[in-house]
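Write out the bound-state structure for uridine-diphosphate-N-acetylglucosamine.
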Amino acid sequence: MSPQQAVAAVVVLAAGQGTRMRSTTPKVLHEMGGRSMLGHVLAATGPLGAGTTLVVVGAGREAVAEHLAAVAPGARPVVQEEQRGSGHAAAVALAAAPDLTGPVLLVNGDAPLLRPETVTALVEAHRAAGAVLTVLTAEVEDPTGLGRVVRDASGAVTGIVEERDATPEQRAITEVNAGVYVGDAAALRRALARIDQDNDQGELYLTDAVGLLVGDGEPVAGAVAEDPDDVLGCNDQREVAARRRTLNDRVLDGLMRAGVTVVDPATTWVDVTASVAAGARLLPGVQLHGTTSVGAGAVVGPDTTLVDTGVGEGASVVRSHCLGSVVGPGATVGPFSYLRPGTDLSRGAKVGAFVETKNARVGEDSKVPHLSYVGDATIGRGANVGAATVFVNYDGVTKHHTTIGDHVRIGSDTMLVAPVTVGDGAYTAAGSVITHDVPPGAMGVARAAQRNVAGWVRRRRPGTAAAQAAAAATGPAEDAAGARPVTGGDGADRPTEPDGNHDQ
Ligand code: UD1
Ligand code: CA
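---
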C-alpha cells in the first residue's frame, strides 16, 4: 500500500443469489442509470485508489466475471463456491490475498447509491478513531429488513444484529448497518475465523465480526452516513426501481443546479454517464443514455431517446430515437425520426419527419425533410433530398454506398440504387430509379414517359361524379376529341419540374 492509498484493498461481496429478485440475471448485474449495481459500487470505491480490488462471485459467476472484465479489468474475481453468507464471502476473499495487510474496505455489491464521498468519509472516520473495524451506518425512518446497530450506554458500537435474530427492543433501533466496512486485514482474519452459523438463516454473517472484536476488547467504531440514501441496498425488483428513481433524481438535481432546464423530472431519465451543458432544455419524456452529450442551447424532446449520441449547441431533436449518432450544432431532427449508428449530421443539417438514417453523413445545411431512408450515404452541403427518397443500399448480400454532391436536388420518390454517385449541383427527376451516376450539373431522369388517354373516364366510368366533373370542366369539346390518346413527354424539361423537391 502506497502512502496516497487510503486502503490496501477493496473487497466487493457479490456472490449472493439475489433470490428475492426472482430473475435469471445475477442481482449485481441489474442496471440503473447506465451502470450495473456492481458498476456503481466500483465507481464509488475507485477513487480510493486501492492497489487491489477483489470481487467475490458465486451465483451467476461467469456472467459477473465477464461483466467485471469489461467494466473494471483491473479487478480480480474470487470464486465463493457455496454461498454460505457474507462473512464466509469476506473470508474467501481474504484467503485469496494472503499477503494483504492494512485497512481493507468491504462493501456489499448491492449498494448502487453509494457515493465516493461517503466511502472516503468512512475511511477517514476509521483512521481518526484508530479502530480495527469501522462500520458505516445510517439513521433511517424504516429499518425493515436491515441489520440493526447495537450501541452501549456510552454510545459505543457493541454489535450488529440481523432483523430476524433481533429482540423487539433491538428491532426498534433505527440505526442500521449499511453493509460497508473498513477493517484491518489481520483483525478481520482473526474475527472471521471464529464466526458461526448460530442464527436464523444458518449463515456465516460478516456482521458477527463486530461483536467478536468488541468482545476481544479491540476498538470498533461506527460512522453514520450523511445521506441515508447512500446505504440503501437492493434486494427485489421494487427496490431496484426505487433506487433507480433516487439515482435519477440525483442526476437531474445536479443538472438543474448547473443550469439545465428539465421541464418534467418525473419523466426524464439521464444516465450517470451522460452529460448536458448549461442552457440546454430537456422536454418531457426524454431519456439520455450511455455517452450521450447535449450542448448548450440545444432542445431535446418531448419523447426522445438518445443513446451514445452527441447533440451540438443549439440543435433540436423532437420525438425521435437516436443511436450512436452525431447531431451537429444547429441541426434539427424529427419529429418521428430514427437515427441509427454512424449517422453524422453537420452544422445546420435537417432530418425531418419519418426519416431513417444509418451510416450516413449529411453535410452542412443539407436537408432530408420527409419520409426517407438514408443508409450508407455521404451527402454534401446545401443539398435537398425530396420526400420519400430511398437510398437503396442493400443488394440482398452486400451493402453499397451512395455519394451525393454539394447543392444537389434529389427529386421526390427517387430510388438511388447504390453504388451510385450524383455529382455536385446535379438534379434527379421525381420518381426516378437512379442506377447510373449523374454527372455534375446534369438532370438524371429514369422513369417511364407519361401517356394520357383522353376521354377514358367518360367512356369507362360513365355517370360517375368524376365523369360529371370532367364534362363540366371540358364541355362538349372533349367529346370531339374522342378516344384519341394524347401522349406526353417525360416532363423533365418543364419549368415547374423536375425536383418535386418538397423542401418546405
Ligand atoms: C446485509 C447485512 C445487513 C445490512 C444489509 C445492508 C449481513 C449478514 N447482513 O444484509 O446487516 O443491513 O446487508 O444492505 O451481512 N453475499 C456473498 N456471499 C454470500 C452471501 C452474501 O457474496 O454467501 C453478498 C451478497 O451478494 C450481498 C452481500 O453479501 O452483496 C450482502 O448479502 P445479502 O444477502 O444481500 O444481505 P442482507 O440480508 O441484505
Ligand atoms: Ca442486501
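---
The pocket of calcium ion (ligand 2) is lined by residues 108, 110, 233, 235 (CB under 6 Å).
Confidence is low (pLDDT under 50) at residues 495-501.
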